[in-house]
From TrEMBL:
It comes from the Eukaryota. This is Zinc finger BED domain-containing protein 5.
Length: 119
């Protein structure tokens, strides 16, 4: 198919690129790490920042929050614990957080009904 779209010569060059599962997996991990590093640097250099939260699940039905895997129930306390650990591990300051927004899902809000301040 590549040969028809980009020509046989270009298709042969593409065949020389290693694309094993390990190679692709490592490249994805490297890109994710680079994006996280860039994002953290931008947040740290900003005077203020805000958070937008959403909760989902993966194919194994494990709860996910932002980029954190939550090992237990998805409660407001567990979400905050995960975020607070991430902030601490990456040198982010809650004092610079000026807002938190979520979709208000009951599973993420119980038993705390709302978050009004970051600090």
């Amino acid at each position: 198919m590549c040969g028809e779209m980009i020509g046989e010569a270009a298709a042969k060059k593409l065949l020389t690129i290693p694309l094993s599962n390990d190679t692709v997996s490592h490249r994805i991990a490297d890109m994710a790490s680079d994006i996280q590093h860039q994002l953290l640097e931008r947040i740290k250099s900003s005077q203020f920042f805000s958070l937008q939260l959403d909760e989902s699940s993966d194919v194994t039905n494990a709860a996910l929050l932002l980029l954190c895997l939550l090992p237990t129930r998805t409660t407001a306390q567990e979400c905050f614990r995960c975020m607070d650990n991430y902030f601490t591990e990456n040198g982010l300051d809650w004092q610079n957080c000026v807002g938190v927004c979520s979709d208000g899902a009951a599973s993420a809000a119980a038993p705390i009904t709302r978050i009004t301040r970051c600090a």
